[in-house]
Each structure stands twice: as structure tokens, then as C-alpha cells.
Specification:
- The protein contains ten helices and eleven strands.
- It has one domain.
- Strands 1, 6, 7, 8, 9, 10 and 11 form a seven-stranded mixed sheet that branches. Strands 2-5 form a two-stranded antiparallel ribbon.
- The chain is globular and about 50 Å long.
- The protein is α+β, with helices and mostly antiparallel strands and 285 residues long.
- The structure holds zinc ion (ZN).
- Zinc ion binds next to helix 3.
């Protein structure tokens, strides 16, 4: 069986019974979790404040929230406490740096990715691309591991081992993606200015009620319309993850008409509407 997870929204009761409250303990090292990982990297968020209009966060059911700043403690900006300070800062700083370089390159070339077959990590990182691509992958494993833990899904041991230095994960794949639905939204954004959006589509959880456990998990992090997808399945697979390639493929995700429509309406709302009423905003925090 499969179900979608969104923070704060009711979910399938059989799935809900399998979720754990993982807040308070660092899922990477096991110490007390006293740090709130940014849902989107702070440097990505800061880019959103470069325009004349304050950025708007949109959630399920058309909810919107005006973002107050990239360091806000709001749930739209941060995950809950599932990492410790040391893991979220000193231990993962090299991963964050590699991600910042990648993300800046994605933004620089944003209008061209739709026609591109892949992303040239050799051009982005130079001769050190192999080690930098691993760091980039580890950034996403750290970030999406926080999303999993925040939603009550324990990240598999392979993700912890990968962050600790293992060169691969037998049961987790990481892929570069370009999403047709988000490309539609991006084109709308571009009619009005230089910025696009940051997206965290619903995570998708696989579970077995008979075996009483969660068996798989998928999540995506999108800038504009390109980004990274993570797929964990308890059955080891022959994952051909992006970080093993100098020129990894950009996998195209076909448009989902319902989602594309919802996204277009959200983009138009973000671009043109008045800020949401305080009452609405407070309810979403
Ligand atoms: Zn830790």
C-alpha cells in the first residue's frame, strides 16, 4: 500500500499507526536533537527575497503564508527537531557548501534545463567532481532524512552510514529530475520576474499493514522545476544514483494535470494577490 504524507494533515490510519514520533533525538548520531534543519537551504530562501514582493509559501488545499524571513522558525521554513547542532553544522558543512555550488548552477541555467539531457557535474565542480558530487548527495540525504524523521519515518541505516562516509547506499537511489508540472509554473513565474519557486512535493510512503512496517519512501526537492529525488525501498536495488556520473541524466517527470493546475493557481496567487489575512497565516504556523 502507499500513502502521501503532509505535515499536519490527516493520513491513512493504517499508515499513521506505523509512524513514530522521532523528534528530540538526532537521527544521524543519536544525541539530543537541538537543531532545526532548514526545509530549503537558507541560501535558496534568501534568493526569494531579492524581488520586490515578499515570498509566499503555499501548502495543501491552497493555503498560503507570507514568509517573514529565511531564518524564521516557521514550519514552512524548518523541519522539527530531529538533528543535533553538531550534525547540522560542523559535520555537514562540506555537504552544504557542495549543495550551494550546485544550486547556484541550477539557478544560473534555469531556463535551459528543460531542453537539457543531463547536468554536467564536471563543468560545475571541475576535476574534483567525484568527491563534490558525493557531498552533494550527502546534503540531500541529510535534508531528506530530516523530512522523513519529521514525518515519523525512521531513515534507514544505509543513509546514516552514507553520511558517515560509505560510498553508496544499497537500498536508496538519488536521481536528478525535471518536472513538467513545475516547468509550467516556472514559465508563469518568468513572465513576471527573475525568481522562480522552491518546492517540496508530498513525500510518498510505502507500507505493509500485514508486516506492520514501512517499506519504502520517496521525496523530491525542486528549485524552479529541477532538483533531486530520493527513493528508499527496503529491498536492495541496483540504484544508478546521479553522484556516480560526471554527466548524470535529468529524468523527466511527466505533468500531473491536477497538480499542474493547482500549482498554476498557487503561482498566480503568489504573484498577484494581496498577502493572506493574519488569521489564515497564524493557523498555518
Ligand atoms: Zn547528531
Amino acid at each position: 500500500m502507499a500513502g502521501d504524507l503532509r505535515a499536519g494533515r490527516g493520513t491513512n490510519p493504517e499508515l499513521a499507526a506505523l509512524l513514530e514520533d522521532l523528534h528530540g533525538t538526532c537521527w544521524w548520531c543519536g544525541k539530543v536533537a537541538d537543531s532545526l534543519e532548514h526545509r530549503h537551504k537558507r541560501t535558496d530562501l534568501e534568493r526569494l527575497w531579492e524581488g520586490s514582493r515578499a515570498p509566499v509559501w503555499g501548502g495543501d488545499g491552497g493555503r498560503v503564508e507570507t514568509l517573514r524571513g529565511p531564518n524564521s522558525k516557521s514550519r514552512s521554513v524548518r523541519f522539527g527537531a530531529v538533528l543535533c547542532q553538531n550534525c547540522n553544522n560542523a559535520r555537514s558543512q562540506p555537504f552544504d557548501r557542495a549543495y550551494e555550488v550546485f544550486s547556484a548552477a541550477l539557478v544560473d541555467g534555469m531556463d535551459g534545463w528543460w531542453e537539457a539531457d543531463g547536468v554536467d557535474l564536471g563543468a560545475i565542480y571541475g576535476p574534483e567532481w567525484r568527491t563534490e558530487a558525493l557531498k552533494l548527495a550527502r546534503y540531500h540525504v541529510k535534508n531528506m532524512g530530516c523530512q522523513m524523521a519529521d514525518h515519523g519515518v525512521r531513515p534507514p541505516q544505509s543513509m546514516v552510514a552514507f553520511l558517515d562516509g560509505e560510498p553508496s547506499m544499497p537500498d536508496v537511489g538519488l536521481y536528478l529530475v525535471k518536472s513538467e508540472s513545475h516547468y509550467g509554473g516556472h514559465k508563469l513565474f518568468r513572465q513576471f520576474g527573475p525568481n522562480s519557486g522552491l518546492f517540496r512535493p508530498d513525500d510518498h510512503v510505502y507500507f505493509s499493514p500485514t508486516r506492520g512496517r514501512i517499506t519504502g519512501y520517496e521525496a523530491m526537492a525542486i528549485i524552479g522545476y529541477v532538483g533531486v529525488a530520493l527513493a528508499w525501498s527496503e529491498a536492495p536495488d541496483d540504484h544508478d544514483s546521479f553522484f556516480m556520473h560526471e554527466f548524470p541524466v535529468l529524468n523527466q517527470i511527466p505533468a500531473d494535470p491536477g497538480f499542474a493546475e493547482e500549482l498554476a493557481s498557487l503561482v498566480l496567487q503568489a504573484l498577484g494577490n494581496d498577502p493572506p489575512q493574519d488569521a489564515d497565516r497564524e493557523r498555518n504556523l
